Amino acid sequence: MSTLADRDHAVLWHPYTQMQTAPLPIPIVRGKGSWLIAEDGTRYLDGISSWWVNLHGHAHPHIARRVSEQLSTLEHVLFAGFTHAPAVELAEQLLALLPARQARVFYSDNGSTAVEVALKMVLQYFHNQGQPQRRTFLCFRDSYHGDTFGAMSVSSRGAFTQPFWPLLFEVEFIDVPVPGREAAVLAQLDAALARPEVAGFIFEPLVLGTAGMVMYEPEVLSEMLRRCHQRGVLAIADEVMTGFGRTGPLFASALLTEQPDIMCFSKGLTGGTLAMGLTTCAAPIYEAFLSDDKMRALFHGHSYTANPVACAAALASLELTRAEACAAQRQRIEAAHAAFGREIEGQPGIRAVRHRGTILAVEYDPGEGTSYFSRLRDAFYQLALDHHVVLRPLGNVVYLLPPYCTTAAELDLLYAVLRRMRELVLDFLPAPTLPEYLHD
């Protein structure tokens, strides 16, 4: 009798996977809290919230109850010409929490589409304003905003997108203003903003996820947004990963003194329960689409736009996220990450430790160049699985982004795996070369 993994291998095609050489996938049959339980009963600690989506733990009873109630009331209705209470309530609650500039909500179904909506908002905003020549976007090098064509265009050019480069629209890349590089990056920004065709600046606020959890400070980002606004350039905050408490506050943009014009959300939006995307914008952007001319409308939509069940899941997750108990969980994880970072920083085999909120990244130093496809990356991945932990290393960078319910003992297991990875790196390092006078 075939196992679930064998049946999977016969019919499925997995993301970011070379199907010819990849081992069989691990079949998961249920989840509880921070744990995933496999078909054979093996338990795996989910150290990355299953691609950053799960906030409160798997199969959370409060979210499950709210989803069940919604399913027995209304499962779906088209969102063109119709509406429903969960969509209205979610928009009302989010706008009350977001920076004051945000005034309207546009629903989609994942992070890439939330970004696509934002890009189209910017381009058509200037088209409706009689400035169609403004079509260039500014982006950070090493950024990632999704896998649809617009989202790929404003993401770093790399191995994952190389087959599509001829089809991506041109953008202007600037460096990430990491500590010590702020003045140089501001100079790059000023040079880019001198071009009259620049329309928008899209960024991951404070943390670039797939770049290796590269982090920079809110002060320099606020200054960048201020300079963009001086030139009439619209700012898009991609909070798909950073939203809903990951960086400390509910939203990374809350730490800014200059606010974005457009914001993108997904991943933690529903607490990891259902697929959903959401884009918000400031009132002037929305108003630029209002006209007696129907051709000035935003012609974008998805079959499952504002799905009521997904909205119900998001409302339930948001209720949990806003509770004092969740804030205490996030503070506890943040403090534990900080303590562990202090412990290992500067040790042999450690190049850097980065930490913000519930995100911890350890950049290991194997003494050679590394990449996502490196042998060390695969060794890290397998080492974690051998210790019953799910991690997804980014080359020589290993990050933790656990569900907020993760206990102190579970965090200790994650840290133990990171310590073991340091030992693995030391094994990878070449033996030191002896000076000539010490040779026989």
UniProtKB/TrEMBL annotation:
Pathway: Cofactor biosynthesis; biotin biosynthesis; 7,8-diaminononanoate from 8-amino-7-oxononanoate (SAM route): step 1/1. This is Adenosylmethionine-8-amino-7-oxononanoate aminotransferase. CDD domains: OAT_like (cd00610). Its EC number is 2.6.1.62. Keywords: Aminotransferase, Biotin biosynthesis, Cytoplasm, Pyridoxal phosphate, S-adenosyl-L-methionine, Transferase. It comes from Hymenobacter algoricola. Belongs to the class-III pyridoxal-phosphate-dependent aminotransferase family. BioA subfamily. Pyridoxal 5'-phosphate binds at residues 111-112, 238, 302-303. SUPFAM superfamilies: PLP-dependent transferases. It catalyses: (8S)-8-amino-7-oxononanoate + S-adenosyl-L-methionine = S-adenosyl-4-methylsulfanyl-2-oxobutanoate + (7R,8S)-7,8-diammoniononanoate. The record marks 16 as: Participates in the substrate recognition with KAPA and in a stacking interaction with the adenine ring of SAM. Catalyzes the transfer of the alpha-amino group from S-adenosyl-L-methionine (SAM) to 7-keto-8-aminopelargonic acid (KAPA) to form 7,8-diaminopelargonic acid (DAPA). It is the only aminotransferase known to utilize SAM as an amino donor. The lineage of its organism: Bacteria, Pseudomonadati, Bacteroidota, Cytophagia, Cytophagales.
